[in-house]
Amino acid sequence: MRTLKSERYIMTRKLLVAGNWKLNGSIAMTNDLISAITNGLSDSNRFDVALFPPFVYLPQASKLVGSKIVLGAQTVSEHAKGAFTGEVSAAMLKEVGCQMVLVGHSERREYFNESNQDIAKKFQVAQAQGLKPILCCGETLEQRESGVTEQVVAQQINAVIDLVGIGAFADAVIAYEPIWAIGTGVTASSEQAQEVHAFIRTLLSLKSDTIAPLVPILYGGSVKGSNAKELFSMQDIDGGLIGGASLTANDFLAICQQADKLS
Ligand code: PGA
Predict the structure, then answer these.
(1) What integer is the mean pLDDT of 224-231?
(2) Quick one: pLDDT at residue 191?
(3) Is the pLDDT confidence value at 4 over 80?
(4) How far is CA 6 from each of CA 171, 193, 227, rounded to the nearest angstrom?
(5) Catalytic annotation present for 110
(6) 84: Cα within 13 Å, side-chain hemisphere
(7) pTM of the entire structure?
(8) Kind of pairing between the strands at 2-5 and 10-13
(9) 190-208 pLDDT per residue, tens
(10) Whose CA is nearest to atom 7 of ligand 1?
(11) Contact 16, 47 (CB under 8 A)
């Protein structure tokens, strides 16, 4: 576990390596991948691992994960129940063994028109059912180039703070994922990522300087075994949200090995 010194606190944040399978998988892949990852992880427990398979594989995954891996879903309905065809509620996710859920992934924002307010609602319903939300945020290339990265990220995070309050972040994770780095093979440099992570932590500290140092902030966007060490060793980068490289055990375990070395 890393010990980080902030101005007023000496505290610890465990690294988290989270695999987001997106729209990928099958019954066979769920079996094979979870078994291979479980076998490849040591018993050290010095860093956390979470997997986010598609909804339909969650009950099966839940039987396979054991104590080394936390299970999560890729999204959740903001509604508790009723006439919302195709939706899955937080209580349902909890019932099939989820402990975490992604909210506000950029693909949900872009392709499914989820607004900052929708995402804030999802964060709220998830926590109400005891699921830990991973709130995703990040800017497009156009936004970065026009110098509004911090403004965009602040709006995305403040919309959630406005609804649930800063206290709710004591039991949540943030993932900074620049959209231009997702699935493109282009990774933000560790300095570029750290700059935004530090901004996020400062933003949180404006509301509470006791909560801010506690919140794990993951980086996402083309993380691989070869760049994980550099990224995860930055002061405010507490692990990664991994897409493409979470679909093969070797690639995912290579990232886990770097987290283990830094823990
Ligand atoms: P990537 O995806 O690792 O394939 O870039 C990351 C994500 O979208 O969470």
Answers:
(1) 96
(2) 95
(3) no
(4) 20, 18, 25
(5) no
(6) 10
(7) 0.95
(8) antiparallel
(9) 999 999 999 999 999 999 9
(10) 243
(11) yes
The pair of three-digit structure tokens given for residue 82, joined into one six-digit string:
């009723």
Cα of 241 vs centre of ligand 1, distance in Å, is 7
Kindly name the residue from 78, 114, 139, 177 that is annotated as catalytic: 177
Q: Please say whether the beta carbons of 15 and 255 come within 8 A.
A: no
CB of residue 134 inside a 6 A radius of ligand 1: no
Cβ–Cβ under 8 Å, residues 49 and 69: yes
3, pLDDT greater than 70: no
Q: What are phi and psi of 18, to 5 degrees?
A: -120, 130
Average pLDDT over residues 137-155: 96
Question: Are 15 and 238 a contacting pair, CB within 8 Å?
Answer: yes
Judged by DSSP in three states, 78 sits in coil
Among all chains, which residue has been given the structure tokens 């990928």?
Answer: 24
pLDDT at residue number 2: 55
Distance 144 CA to ligand 1 centre (A): 18
Q: Is the CB of 239 under 6 A from ligand 1?
A: no
For the cut 70, the answer to whether the pLDDT of residue 8 exceeds it is no
Instruction: Detail the DSSP E strand segments found in 99-250.
Output: 100-103, 132-137, 173-176, 217-220, 239-242
The closest alpha carbon to 11, from 197, 219, 234, 211, belongs to 211
Q: What integer pLDDT is reported at residue 174 of this predicted model?
A: 98
Provide the residue ranges of all domains of the chain, joining segments of one domain with +: 15-262
Residue 252 and residue 151: Cα distance in Å, rounded? 32
CATH T-level topology, domain 15-262: TIM Barrel (3.20.20)
Q: Ligand 1 pocket: which of 107, 184, 223, 247 to mutate (most atoms <8 Å of CB)? A: 223
Tell me if residue 197 is catalytic: no
